[in-house]
Design brief:
This protein is an alpha/beta fold. The chain has helices at about 70-75, 140-160, 180-190, 200-210, 225-230, 250-255, 275-280, 300-315, 330-340, and strands at about 5-15, 20-35, 45-50, 55-65, 85, 90-100, 110-115, 125-130, 130-135, 170, 195-200, 215, 235-240, 255-265, 285-290, 320-325, 345-350. About 30% of the residues lie in helices and about 30% in strands.
Length: about 350
């Protein structure tokens, strides 16, 4: 398999009124890009030039890349992207060069990241140093690529969104997914009981192995009715819903009086418009639509959440389940598998 990430090109910049002529270094990398929104087939495997990092930037060599459902939102056009665009928001790798003004990182540092700008589906790239998180030596690159977005999502859902106490019971959709398995283990460490929804009995077994107190196989069970049964009719104080359109009503029907519905994903499509009066009728419930970016925008808060996550993973208290591995050039198949619900746990691209 050909890799071009180490191919160096020299381009000559003609002199201008305020600069002398000079040779500039460019590396040739391979990347997945898309030129129009659509299905998985719009993604293409292309050669791209990677230049010298500018002020506040670094050049990275990726070792592993994360596959997240959010990637499909950009590809499909649900989330806006300036086209043509790269794909992906999560990867782990090694710093190969640093630009002016970068003091926190140096060449050879192991790092991970999640968030904009798009372009993680690549062998090499230049990006802002402020987006990077130092990766402890005890966490492999593949593990980091499988958990940075999912782990930080679990962190803010459990540590920032609502005040939960030991003994509380919550409802979590997609409990056997990448976020689901991390969230469930973390909740168990906090003494929180999790009712997890899954699509198959196989996934239910996996979710229980990772700490789900109860599982609901939603194709054959009424989720809200089962939640009420498990909570003596009260419902749960918090519902965590990453599915969106197809689960919103069941989620709303599962929240207890003055409880909270957290809509943090739209795997089945956007949630419907909210009728404020229905929130009163359902018991004065609250609804929020959070985004990870707003919980890691502050560097100190991001470091705190990442530190807690890394500590749990390094100690083995939280295990990262990687069940799907793909070559980066096989992104089309990876997206098809992800959207068809064939994934359990996390998925990564290896380079």
């Amino acid at each position: 398999m050909w890799r071009a990430s180490r191919l160096l090109l020299l381009h000559y910049s003609r002199p201008g009124p305020d600069r002398p002529g000079a040779f500039e270094e460019f590396f040739v990398a391979q990347a997945i890009r898309f030129h129009r929104p659509g299905g998985p087939e719009v993604m293409q495997w292309e050669s791209v030039e990677v230049g010298t990092p500018g002020t506040g930037q670094v050049r990275l060599r990726h070792v592993a890349v994360g596959l997240n459902f959010a990637d499909t939102y950009f590809r499909s056009g649900l989330y806006p992207a300036a086209l043509p665009a790269g794909m992906g928001v999560e990867a782990a790798g090694v710093v190969e060069a640093v630009g002016p003004g970068v003091s926190v990182f140096k060449e050879g540092d192991r790092v991970t990241y999640t968030g904009s700008p798009l372009g993680a589906y690549s062998t090499q790239r230049v990006m802002p140093a402020a987006s990077l998180i130092k990766l402890p030596d005890g966490i492999p690159f593949e593990t980091a690529a499988a958990m940075t977005m999912r782990g930080l999502t679990s962190a803010y859902l459990l540590r920032r969104i609502a005040t939960l106490i030991p003994g509380d019971t919550v409802l979590l959709h997609a409990a056997a997914g990448g976020v689901g398995l991390i969230f469930t283990q973390w909740a168990k460490l906090l003494g929180i009981n999790v009712i997890g929804t899954v699509s198959t009995e196989e996934k239910a077994e996996v979710a229980r192995q990772y700490g789900c107190t109860h599982t609901i196989v939603y194709p054959r069970e009424d989720v809200a009715a089962r939640v009420r049964e498990l909570t003596d009719g009260a419902g749960v104080p918090v519902v965590y819903d990453s599915i969106g359109a197809t689960t919103f009503q069941q989620s709303l029907n599962s929240v207890k009086r003055r409880g909270l519905l957290v809509c943090f994903g739209t795997a089945s499509g956007p949630i419907p418009p909210i009728d404020a009066m229905q929130l009163a009728i359902k018991g004065s419930v609250f609804v929020t639509r959070p985004a990870l970016a707003d919980y890691i925008a502050d560097p100190r808060e991001r470091a705190e959440l990442a530190g807690e996550l890394f500590g749990h993973v390094e100690s083995g208290r939280i295990k990262i389940e990687i069940n799907q591995r793909y070559a980066l050039e096989d992104a089309v198949q990876a997206h098809r598998d992800l959207e068809a619900g064939r994934s359990i746990g996390s998925s990564v691209f290896h380079l």
